[in-house]
Amino acid sequence: MAKMNYKKRFADLEKRIVVSPEGEEFEVDPMKDYFADAKPKVHPPSKIAPLEKFMNWCRAESIYILAFGTGCGAIEMRPLSSPMYDAYRYGVAWRATPRQSTVFVIGGYASIKTIKRIVRSYEQIQGPKWVIGLCSCTINGGMYWDSYNTINRLDHYIPVDVYITGCMPRPEALLDAIELLKKRIKEGRGEGANEYAENYEWYKANQKKIIKSWDMPDYSW
Ligand code: SF4
Predict the structure, then answer these.
(1) CATH number of the structural domain spanning residue 178
(2) Does the residue 188 lie in any domain?
(3) Is 156 strand, coil or helix?
(4) What is the pLDDT of residue 197?
(5) pLDDT tens column, 97-154
(6) pTM
(7) Domains of the chain: total
(8) Which of the listed residues 105, 150, 168 should we mutate to test ligand 1's pocket, taking the one with most ligand atoms within 8 A of CB?
(9) Tens digits of per-residue pLDDT, 14-26?
(10) What is the distance between the alpha carbons of residues 6 and 116, in angstroms, rounded to a whole number?
């Protein structure tokens, strides 16, 4: 297979001088201009306890799932939106972009190629945000535990709020995990995003250890 020339592929992302229609020259640095290079921040709860409780209730009852099937377990998400399970009645909806989502469901095993997209997508979700690891593969690698190109523990790369065991778990298990996540959010215990911000260096080091071609900003929200 031909070796990917990253330099050529990402030439558009290199610093360059551009000229405005008025003839004025200025420098463009796409890696800085297109992405934020600031580290994520810890968001403390509101000092007004009833307000925080109300906001947590709102957050828990508006679960927007990022529809991104990483492995075979993701197929169990489809029945949830069918009339048989009708997850919409629990305030659950699916979105096509990280910008509109609050919950990232990792639907099964994650290859090293996929983890790169998982990290970027996770970081692009606006906070507060949560992660559900669906299937045994996200917990310990499952049947791919000794594979050369899949990761074993998802929570070494992004924080996971709720794990679901099984290969593959039934849709009811995913509904149950969503209910558990809602309970944790309402109790103010859905702290994955803050944990990511607090242990940012540790997560980044783990990610860079396996993603050899690191050609993206460190934090891409
Ligand atoms: S646990 Fe089973 S169903 Fe889930 S991703 Fe792994 S192999 Fe697929």
Answers:
(1) 3.40.50.12280
(2) yes
(3) helix
(4) 93
(5) 999 999 999 988 999 989 989 998 999 998 899 999 999 999 998 898 899 889 999 9
(6) 0.85
(7) 1
(8) 168
(9) 888 888 888 888 8
(10) 15
Better-scored residue on pLDDT, 185 or 2: 185
Average pLDDT along the chain:
88
Structure tokens at 216: 């993206």
How far, in Å, is the centroid of ligand 1 from the Cα of 165? 10
On whether residue 145 sits in a domain, the answer given is yes
> Could you tell me which of 143, 75, 149 has the C-alpha nearest to residue 110?
149
Assigned domain for 70 exists:
yes
Q: Is residue 138 part of a domain?
A: yes
Q: Could you tell me the distance, in angstroms and rounded to a whole number, from the CA of residue 134 to the centre of ligand 1?
A: 8
68 C-alpha to ligand 1 centroid (Å)? 15
How many Cα atoms sit within 13 Å of 58 on the Cβ side? 7
Residue nearest to atom 5 of ligand 1 (CA): 108
Q: Output the CA torsion sign for 190, 196, 202, 206.
A: positive
Task: Tell me which residue range forms the domain holding 77.
Answer: 64-210
Contact 93, 188 (CB under 8 A): no
The span from the CA of 15 to the CA of 32, in Å, is: 9
